[in-house]
Amino acid sequence: MGTTLEKEIKRRKTFGIISHPDAGKTTLTEKLLLFGGAIQEAGAVKSNKIKKGAASDFMEIERQRGISVATSVLAFEYKGKKINILDTPGHKDFAEDTYRTLTAVDSVIVVIDVAKGVEEQTEKLVQVCRMRNIPMLVFINKLDREGKDAFDLLDEVEQKLHLRVTPLSWPIGMGLDFQGIFNMWENNLKFFTEEKKQKIGDSIEIKDINDNLINDFIGDQAAENLRNEQELIHSVYPKFSKEEYLNGTLQPVFFGSALNNFGVQELLDAFVEIAPNPLPKMSDIRLVRPEETNFTGFVFKIHANMDPKHRDRLAFVKIVSGIFKRNTNYLHVRQNKMMKFSSPAAFFADKKEVVEESYPGDIVGLHDTGNFRIGDTLTEGEKLNFKGIPSFSPEHFRYINNEDPMKTKQLAKGIDQLMDEGVAQLFTLEMNNRKIIGTVGALQFEVIQYRLEHEYSAKCSYEPVHIHKACWVETDDEKSTEFLEFKRVKQKFLAKDKFGQLVFLADSAFSISMTLEKFPSIKLHFTNEF
Ligand code: GDP
Question: In which residues is GTP bound (predicted)?
């Protein structure tokens, strides 16, 4: 018999769904919640998609979320497990938001459209997961439509995503001829009937692949195909190993149709059985294990209140170890300040509510008036900082100018807080203190302008600046002649990020390679984490 803490840890599974927009992430999320009984009908989960690619669209989504922040974390119970789904924006302009959320998940499900195959955004996100050895399950969606051949698709997943896959379910036909799936995980066949759309289809148990029942249900030809395909699968793909899945070296694949609620339960049943419980996390001084009695956690997301009358924000904290308790003093490590929280929020599919206690794997939302920054750590007193929330070099850069001299303070505060939320990155030129905003997508510039005006009553304008990449500068010796020479020559291109780290704002790829050649003792990094 374990303690309550140990029992609660074993019950928890915190994961994210990643995909290219339109592959079916929202639909799958919704079907998972239906199984968990967390929602009653389809259509309850709001898509976080930015359709027109306009800032107004984004703002509308954010406003709606402000009202029901629950969409950032969706929790439900299934087979005695508490499952937390963390929402990840699919739009590429918000990729950084997704990278940060991935630091708070213990596993992911990758959704791929059977017709489109592996798409750009999936590649990028999977790469991040691979780097962190996050366990991944793959769900190939939209089997009710004509798509690519299943074997070809697995090849594509292996090649483009550099994954080592093994199917745990297999489609029988596809598109108009889609008959169902053979569940290799549980050895049964499930039949597809489109009329049953939102309902769970019938399935038959079979003893093995040579069972004649298969012929009775899908016909001799399809049965023979299935047997041949199974033989091929067994000779080509590795046998499933939970251990390899957990250490990120093997990725099981499932097929289905989220829209028709088909193949989703197979995925969920396998997920609850194999997906990891909350994992230990590395800090700057030691590995922190969930079972430790002292609470620790870190902020991976900050959500601003879109109502200008209440400028408070919600900081999302992932609990790493121990039990988080309401109204208890915790150390905000970066500020070296004790803080307590009277109304920490827990999230469910359709609501958020104040919680007394939360366990590792859970997310709590803390009301914040500007104390938190993404990456901040909370502990019971120990001075440790969790690692792994990097900033990547932005893709777009612009000078930001103050358009209303009477509102200089508001502007500075607004910029500061928006940067804390991780909306964009700020670089201050060493030479003249001019401020440059760097973003992942062009959309953020509009978002920043809009929010500065509506939330901080400040006005800004932008001016083009020619920068190719931001490179974080590393040197072993700040006093070396070489480093001083580098600083002299590159004076015009040097800036500080918001943590005071030195950044070289290179105007071309050529300039980066020339710099590296000329100053061999200096290292340039495209992320601030090195
Ligand atoms: P997201 O952008 O990844 O969240 O994708 P959505 O869940 O919003 O789905 C995008 C579109 O694909 C919507 O029109 C869905 O109805 C549709 N869709 C999702 N799953 C399926 C499926 O299994 N079959 C078919 N035919 N369409 C699907």
Answer: 19-26, 87-91, 141-144
pLDDT digits (tens, 9 = 90+) for 362-409: 999 999 888 998 899 999 999 999 986 777 889 999 999 999 999 999
Percent of the chain with pLDDT over 70: 89
Residues in the chain: 530
Task: Enter the pTM of the model.
Answer: 0.85
Spacing, Cα 258 to ligand 1 middle (Å) = 7
Contact 372, 389 (CB under 8 A): no
Residue of 28, 121, 141, 259 best suited for mutating to test ligand 1, as the one with most atoms within 8 Å of CB: 259
The model's confidence at residue 40, banded by pLDDT at 50, 70 and 90, is low
Edge-first strand listing for the sheet containing 435-439: 460-464, 396-402, 435-439, 425-429, 494-496, 502-506, 469-474, 523-525
Q: Which residues contact 315 (CB under 8 A, 6 or more apart)?
A: 299, 301, 302, 303, 365, 366, 367, 368, 372, 376
219 is in an annotated binding site: no
Going from the Cα of 459 to the center of ligand 1, the distance in angstroms, rounded, reads 39
Q: Is 449 in the pocket of ligand 1 (CB under 6 A)?
A: no
pLDDT higher than 60, residue 276 = yes
- CB burial class (10 A; 0-12, 13-18, 19+) of residue 185? middle
Q: How many CA atoms lie within 13 A of 460 on its CB side?
A: 29
Pairing of strands 377-379, 296-304: antiparallel
pLDDT at residue 304, as a whole number = 75
Q: Is 25 annotated as a binding residue?
A: yes
Domains and CATH numbers, the chain: 2-177+239-274 (3.40.50.300), 281-379 (2.40.30.10), 396-525 (3.30.70.3280)
Cα–Cα distance for residue pair 282/287, rounded to 1 Å: 4
pLDDT range class, residue 54, cuts 50, 70, 90: low
> By the 8 A CB rule, do 141 and 108 touch?
no
Query: Is the Cβ–Cβ distance between 289 and 282 less than 8 Å?
Result: no
Residue of the nearest CA to atom 28 in ligand 1?
A: 259
As a whole number, mean pLDDT of residues 268-281 equals: 95
- Residue with the smallest CA separation from ligand 1 atom 16 is 259
In this prediction, residue 66 has a pLDDT band, given cuts at 50, 70 and 90, of: very low
Distance, CA 65 to ligand 1 centroid (Å)?
21
Q: What share of the chain is helix, strand, coil (3-state, %, to 5)?
A: 30, 30, 40
Reported confidence tier of residue 57, pLDDT bands at 50, 70, 90: low
Between 50 and 151, the more confident residue is 151
Q: What is the per-residue pLDDT across 182-215, written as a single tens digit (0 to 9) for each?
A: 988 888 888 876 654 444 456 677 778 888 888 8
- What ipTM was assigned to the predicted interfaces of this complex? 0.99
CA of 188 to the centre of ligand 1 (A): 26
CA 506 – CA 517 distance, rounded (Å): 14
Q: What is the 3-state secondary structure (H, E, C) of 267-307?
A: HHHHHHHHCCCCCCEEECCCEECCCCCCCEEEEEEEEECCC
23 CA distance to ligand 1 middle (Å): 6
Q: DSSP letter at 441?
A: S
